[in-house]
Specification:
The chain is α/β, with parallel strands linked by helices. The chain is built from 25 helices and 27 strands. Helix 22 links the parallel strand 17 and strand 18. The chain is globular.
Length: about 775
């Protein structure tokens, strides 16, 4: 049979296989119906496959994909007692694969997909900083490196697809999933998308040739590479009122200028997950214009599109039946379901005539193509990891700690930092000071005892071993009951200390007593969980008694260093007024404690810059930096319209100067730019301080002219450099058609007449000739 011949192209193998498949087998391939953690049970002898799993294999005469086989968290109720240890994952993956292939008439393997928003959500896994912090790093090479480490970890476990949040933009930080965004800027997110794809997939899918017209050997997948599924498509962060899955009212020009370039950056990913929201009334999951016309036809996307969890079941009230909903989703290009009932009705839809076989075949073709590309037909099983597997995975924490340090942003420093270990009494106080789960963000697996000991307090105590370091909780994140004793204990400790390290913020930590919706979102919120999926807020104020605690500590007149552990910006004007230094650590991951201690001691110079405009309060939203430059009064009667800290803000222990902004080829014409010529921009950055430090140069453009209102500014380049004291470096940028064009009133891209280029406080105006 041709589909078993590795010398044939993937297209030839898939075409041959499709001809031999029954309707039932095809329907089985587009379904990812099961909760993966229910596919096995643990007993004294090991792991056994459940009837729940076997029955679905029988129903689909095989299986398209299985999500979350290794998922461990309060929703799945999987922990260290009943879950799969990291070192045993490959065995269970092989058992699953062996059963599926042996119960598939044609021996079709199954895709194993796992959640990986900031590291694998499985036992014994590395948990990195959440995206909102990683966006502050502005370090594409570090994003690629940590993505490669995640891929290696997952591949060793037998995983084929990693689900990674990277297509969402935080345009309203009231949204609970703000922590999953790299920030508000599409240019940053697009750059990180390319780094993520390179880290996970290498060059498996590229612009040179469609992968289906190659053989598996020509694609050359390496054992430590796997497919990455980027989510969510698209504009989920634009929900009205900051509501999760809320209505999105963006128009065509907003889509084309902000989200279309972001989609283009995802062109070579193996998969994209559709978003829950609509776009101007059309659900993303049935949006033919979005997936078929824009993503596949205009952009040339080659991968699969996956539904979000139970999202397809939300379509029945719109289209009248599950069968019609399934037909609409297949027509829109949704290839693979997730936990829903809707795609289980496809065979009925074919009989009713509301689904066409050609549409189903297209989805099955894409899924089978991906399985061939990833080598599952030729090498379906995972080899036993090396004997030093645990040690190798643990070595990834070095990169994790570097990522955590570069994610942190110094917002204020009155000369108090860095601290010296001089034998002083340091009081580490706050609800996030000694609670590791509060550092990790949503979508986090149960942690080991060793991991739980890496809190901010324990890390500070180890780093300042000559000093007397003590801890007091101070208050809870949100709970307002029974807080007075906690506050009094903290004040008592502060009065006996020389300096206060106050760790405030929010928490996305779930617990096993919570209740959840069928898609895993929290339905009964814990009192101290104020961020994460389905945890949106109306106010950005710090919760509970945190501000009261701050006021009481301020009254002791001891210097306060405030650390903000958070998944979204909070209202921190009072925090900044009462603190001598303020650091936003976001959710810094397992190595956040040691990374923060390195910054406090000065071992590491903070280099983060805000990838999100930091608002003063929710009352002034939105404040994202690339709004249209419309004539209006930006200030309110009772509040400034400007953010508290602008996009790109971040202090350092050293200082930097910018000099000699030049454009070597200002004579470039519009025609030349359309033909691929680049406008060159150069600037010199110099370290004028006393510490070695990293600085990110941000290049903004302001477009002039045209028949629409242009935006206030657009980020069109960034470069991070490390400089020693007195060292200078010349940095170069290139601006082409895409960086200098806007979407005109007819919906097509057109070059601006003029552009103002700004780096730091340096500006230059360039006019383009029309010939």
């Amino acid at each position: 049979m041709s589909y078993k011949n590795p010398d044939r192209t993937i297209h030839e193998r898939v075409e041959d296989l499709l001809k031999q498949m029954t309707v039932e087998e095809k329907v089985g391939q587009v379904n990812q119906h099961l909760y993966g953690w229910k596919a096995y049970e643990k007993d004294k002898t090991g792991f056994r496959l459940t009837d729940y799993f076997k029955e679905h294999v029988r129903w689909g005469q095989g299986m398209g994909a299985l999500y979350g086989l290794f998922r461990a968290d309060p929703w799945s109720k999987v922990n260290h007692l009943n879950g799969i240890p990291a070192e045993d994952s490959w065995k269970v993956a092989n058992d699953i694969q062996d059963y599926v292939m042996n119960h598939s008439r044609l021996g079709i393997p199954v895709l194993l997909a796992e959640e990986c928003p900031h590291g694998h959500q499985g036992l014994g896994s590395i948990s990195y900083p959440t995206n909102i912090g990683r966006g502050n790093s502005f370090n594409t090479s570090l994003i690629e490196e940590t993505s490669r480490l995640m891929a290696e970890e997952l591949a060793a476990k037998g995983v084929h697809l990693a689900l990674v949040s990277s297509l969402d933009l935080s345009r309203d930080p009231r949204w609970g999933r703000t922590e999953e965004c790299y920030g508000e800027d599409p240019y940053v997110a697009a750059a990180f998308n390319r780094s993520i794809i390179a880290g996970f997939q290498g060059d498996m899918i590229n612009d040179r040739q469609a992968f289906v017209h190659q053989t598996v050997a020509e694609i050359g997948r390496k054992p430590n590479q796997l497919g990455v599924v980027l989510k969510h498509c698209i504009a989920q962060g634009d929900g009205l009122g900051g509501h999760n899955s809320g209505a999105v009212t963006i128009g065509e020009r907003e889509f084309m200028e902000i989200y279309y370039p972001l989609l283009k950056s995802a062109k070579n990913t193996a998969g994209i997950m559709a978003a829950y929201n609509d776009i101007d009334g059309v659900p993303c999951h049935t949006n033919h214009q979005l997936f078929q016309k824009q993503l596949r036809t205009a952009i040339g996307y080659q991968g699969i599109v996956i539904a979000d969890g139970t999202a397809l079941d939300r379509l029945k009230p719109i289209y009248g039946s599950d069968e019609r909903a399934a037909g609409k989703a297949l027509q829109a290009g949704i290839d693979l379901s997730l936990w829903d009932r809707t795609y289980l009705t496809i065979e009925n839809g074919l009989k009713q005539g509301v689904i066409q076989m050609e549409t189903l075949d297209q989805a099955v073709y894409r899924i089978l193509s991906l399985k061939f590309m990833l080598g599952l037909f030729d090498c379906p099983f995972t080899e036993k990891p090396e004997t030093n597997y645990k040690e190798r995975i643990y070595s990834y924490q070095k990169g994790n700690q570097k990522m955590a340090a570069e994610s942190m942003t110094l917002l204020k420093n009155e000369g108090l930092l860095p601290l010296t270990d001089s034998g002083e009494k340091l009081a580490v106080i706050g609800p996030n000071a000694h609670a590791l789960y509060n550092q990790l963000g949503d979508y986090t697996a149960p942690q080991t005892d060793e991991q739980l000991d890496k809190t901010i307090f324990t890390s500070v105590k180890q780093a300042f071993f000559r000093s007397q370091v003590a801890y007091s909780q101070g208050c809870d994140v949100r709970d307002e009951k029974n807080q007075e004793t906690l506050i009094e204990n903290a004040v008592e400790l502060a009065e006996k200390s020389d300096k206060i390290i106050l760790v405030l913020g929010g928490s996305s930590a779930r617990n096993f007593d919570m209740e959840f919706f069928a898609n895993g979102a929290v339905s009964s919120k814990g009192v101290n969980m104020d961020s994460g999926e389905n945890v949106d807020v109306a106010s950005l104020s710090l919760g509970g008694k945190q501000l009261e605690l701050l006021a009481r500590l301020k009254a002791t007149e001891k210097p306060i260093i405030t650390i903000l552990v958070q998944g979204r910006p909070h209202d921190i004007e009072t925090v900044c007024q009462h603190s001598a230094a303020v650091i936003s650590a976001w959710y810094p991951g397992q190595e956040g404690g040691p990374a923060l201690a390195q910054i406090l001691t000065g071992t590491v110079n903070p280099s983060g810059k805000l990838s999100i405009s930091y608002p003063r309060s929710s009352g002034q939203l939105p404040v994202y930096h690339y709004q249209r430059d419309i004539a209006m009064n930006e200030n309110y009667y009772d509040l400034s319209g400007a953010p508290l800290f602008p996009f790109g803000y971040g202090e350092s222990f050293t200082t930097f100067s910018y000099e000699k902004l030049t454009v070597p080829n200002p004579e470039v014409t519009q025609q030349a730019l359309k033909e691929g010529k680049k406008l060159q921009v150069e600037v010199t950055v110099k370290n004028t301080g006393q510490f070695t430090g990293k600085e990110t140069a941000l290049l903004f453009v302001k477009l002039h002219g045209g028949d629409v209102i242009q935006r206030k500014q657009l980020l069109r380049g960034f470069e991070k450099v490390e400089l020693s004291p007195d060292q200078a470096e010349r940095i170069g940028f290139k601006l082409g058609f895409e960086e200098l064009a806007y979407c005109n009133s007819q919906g097509s891209f057109e070059l601006a007449d003029q552009v103002t280029i700004r780096i730091n406080e340096l500006e230059q105006l360039i006019s383009f000739e029309n010939s």
